Amino acid sequence: MATIKDIAAAAGVSTATVSRVLNFDETLSVSEDTKKKIFDIADSFSYKSKKRSKEKKIAFVHWSTQQEAMNDLYYSSIRVGIEKRCRFRNMQVIKYFQSDFEKQPFEGIEGIIAVGKFSESQIKKLESITSNIVFVDSSPDEELFPSVVVNFERVTTKVMNHFVDKGHTAIGYIGGRERFKDQNVEFRDPREIAFQNYIKEKAITDAPMYIGEFSVEDGYRLMQQAINDHKESLPTAFFVGNDSLAIGCLKALHEAGIEVPNRVNIIGVNDVSFSKYTHPALSTVKIHTESMGENAVDLLVEQISDSTLPKQIVIPTTLKIRESSF
Predict the structure, then answer these.
(1) Distance (Å, rounded) from C-alpha 230 to C-alpha 235?
(2) Which CATH architecture does the domain made up of 4-150+289-315 adopt?
C-alpha cells in the first residue's frame, strides 16, 4: 500500500502538502495543477497496490467535473467519507467524474455510489453497468435505489422557526439552482420550495426571494440586489441556501455598512470548515457530509451481498448559531 511519503516523493512536494490536499484543506495555498497531480498520483498508487488483491471494486461517480468537485467542500467532504469507509472495509474505490463519465470503461465494478443529481439517461447508463447503485444527495426513485439524503424541508423549517421565534417578521431567501450536467435543464432546489411553502403557511408577506447559483459570487451579487431593491426596508433576516452564498452575502452587507447581526441576521447551510472563521462567524445548519459518504458505502455493501429491498437513510442536521444571527 502506497504511503503519503511515497506520493509526496512522486509529486515532488512535502508529506504535509500531500496530507492537506488529500484531506481537502482549504487553507492550503497550492496551485490547481499541483492538487490534480497529487490526486492523480494517489489514484495511480492506490490502483497499483490494490490491483492484485481480491477486495471489492466499486465506483464513485460524481456528477460534477473533477475541478468542480475539488472546489466544492460539500461534495469533497462526502467523498472523504466514502474513501475512509472503503479503506476501513478494505474496498477499492475508482473515481469517475462528469468529464469522463461517458468515455471511461467501468471494468470489474461490483457497485456504484452516485453522488449528486443524475438525469434519466445517466441513470440508465449506470444501470447498464451494475444493478448495485446507491445515490447520495439525491433519490431518483426510492422504490428502486438505496439512497443517503438530507431532508432539506426539515432544514428550512428549522431555520425559519428560529427566525420566527426570535421575532423576525420580514425574512428573505437567497438560494441557488442546479442543472443536470448532460442537459440544460434547471431544477428547483428543495430549500427554495420549502421556503415558499413555509411563508405561505405562516402568512409571512414580507419574504423576498433571490435565486442564482450556489457560489460566493452570486451570494454577493444577490445580496447587493436585495439591498438596492429594499434599502431601509431590507428584511431583518435571510435564510441562505448554502455557506458559499452566505459568505458572499456577508461581504455585500459589510461593504454597504449594514451590521450583522444587529440589522440583518444570516443563517446558511452546510457548516463547511471555514464557516466558523468568517467575520462575523457564520450561523449555519451542519450537514454531516462525511457520515453521508460512510453510510453510502455501508448501504452498497449490504446491497451487493444481500440484494435487500432499497433503503433510504436520512441524515440528521444540527442548527449552529454563531455570530451572524441571534
Answers:
(1) 8
(2) 3-Layer(aba) Sandwich (3.40)
Domain ranges (residues) in the chain: 4-150+289-315, 152-287
**Tens digits of residue pLDDT in 26-40:** 567 777 678 777 877
Q: What pLDDT, on the 0 to 100 scale, is given for residue 53? A: 43
Cα–Cα distance measured from residue 272 to residue 32, given in angstroms and rounded to the nearest whole number: 20
Report d(CA 125, CA 75) in Å as an integer: 22
CA distance to 8, 63, 71, 247, 266, per residue, from 251 (Å): 37, 30, 20, 6, 12
- What does the block give as the cell for 200? 405561505
Distance of alpha carbon 293 from the chain centroid: 11
Q: How many CA atoms lie within 13 A of 2 on its CB side?
A: 22
pLDDT exceeds 70 at position 66: no
Say what angle helices 32-50 and 15-22 make with each other, to 10 degrees: 90
Amino acid at 111: G
All three cell numbers of 87, joined, read 479503506
* C-alpha cell, 37: 497531480
pLDDT at 1: 53
Pick the residue with more confidence: 318 or 44?
Answer: 318
More confident residue, 241 or 102: 241
* Contact between 238 and 249 (Cβ < 8 Å): yes
Closest to 66 in 3D by CA, of 91, 27, 37:
37
Instruction: Report DSSP letters for 85-107, one per residue.
Output: HHHHTT-EEEEE-GGGTTTS--T
Model confidence pTM above 0.85:
no
C-alpha cell, 215: 457560489
Q: What's the topology of domain 152-287?
A: Rossmann fold (3.40.50)
The whole-angstrom distance between residue 235's C-alpha and the CA centroid of its chain comes to 27
DSSP string, 212-267: E-SSHHHHHHHHHHHHHHHGGG--SEEEESSHHHHHHHHHHHHHTT--TTTT-EEE
Domains 4-150+289-315 and 152-287 share a fold: yes
CA 30 to chain centre: 22
Could you identify the residue written with the cell 467501468? 106
